[in-house]
Amino acid sequence: MRVFVFVALLVIAATAPAQAPAVTVHGAAEDTAGAAVGGVRLDFVLWGSSEKKTAVTGPDGQYSIELPAGRYEIQLTLPGRQRPQSEFAFLGPADRKEVVLNVRVPKDTAAALTEYDTLGEWRVVDQQGRGIGPAKVTFEALQRDGRRVTFSVYVPVSDEEKEVTGPVDTDPAGRFVFRIREAHLAADRVVALIVTAEAPGYLPRSERILPALQFSETGHLYAAYPEDGVKIVLKPR
User: Which domain covers residue 98, as residue numbers?
Assistant: First the structure.
């Protein structure tokens, strides 16, 4: 009997679904003047489940909540408003322990919905911080299912923009300026931006750039990547 029970427990353990790893979601709510806003409610509903978890910002505008990693419907309710605004995002991936999700609260009537493209001025440098150029940089979107998807970006040429489907060239100081359409980095599908730099005499290197999530003053949720300060450091061969 003891052997039978032991074997049964082993079978149950082997067939039980794996527990999703936990991720801490935290951030702040501010109005368009930068003042903290308390009483902002965020409801998180795991996709395929009716279970809802709620976080409310305190007087300092801050909140924090622990959730299983996964795809969520996020319902935002601002103070004094009854009707929530709803958006979807993937909170994870499994190896990401925290996600920043901030809220911008309008002081008056919100403007019409606009796109929130990613604008960047980043650099490729050596281990001493000196710019490497010319170098070539490629972009990939890391999907929530682990796939890496390439896409076109826009770069400045004279007074215009040019769409580039392949690698982007840096200037002699290792600088590269770009714009990525918001649709390529949708928070519901994409968990990170992978940037790979290559230059003659150096080993290629890929960096995974993680975004913060941002509710705009119109209630639109988008992925916010750094505009500057990102450096891809290459080592000599």
Answer: 15-105
Q: Which of 105, 131, 156 is the last residue of a domain?
A: 105
Provide the 3-class DSSP secondary structure of residue 198: strand
Q: How many domains does the chain have?
A: 2
Question: pLDDT tens, 22-43?
Answer: 899 999 999 988 999 999 999 9
Residue 206 contacts residue 139 (beta carbons within 8 Å): no
Q: Which of 9, 59, 30 is nearest to 215 (CA)?
A: 30
- Exposed (0-12), middle (13-18) or buried (19+): which is 146, by Cβ within 10 Å? exposed
Same domain, 130 and 55: no
Angstrom distance (rounded) from CA 89 to CA 231:
27
Same domain, 80 and 140: no
DSSP state of 82: -
Q: Which residues contact 179 (CB under 8 A, 6 or more apart)?
A: 117, 118, 119, 120, 153, 154, 155, 161
Predicted TM-score of the model (pTM)? 0.82
Interior CA angle at 122 toward 118 and 126, to 5°? Answer: 155
Is 221 a domain residue? no
Domain-embedded: residue 185: yes
The size of the chain, in residues, is 237
Write the secondary structure of 14-75 as one string of H (helix), E (strand) and C (coil). HHCCCCCCEEEEEEEEEECCCCECCCCEEEEEECCCCCEEEEECCCCCEEEEEEECEEEEEE
- pLDDT tens profile 191-208: 999 999 999 999 999 999
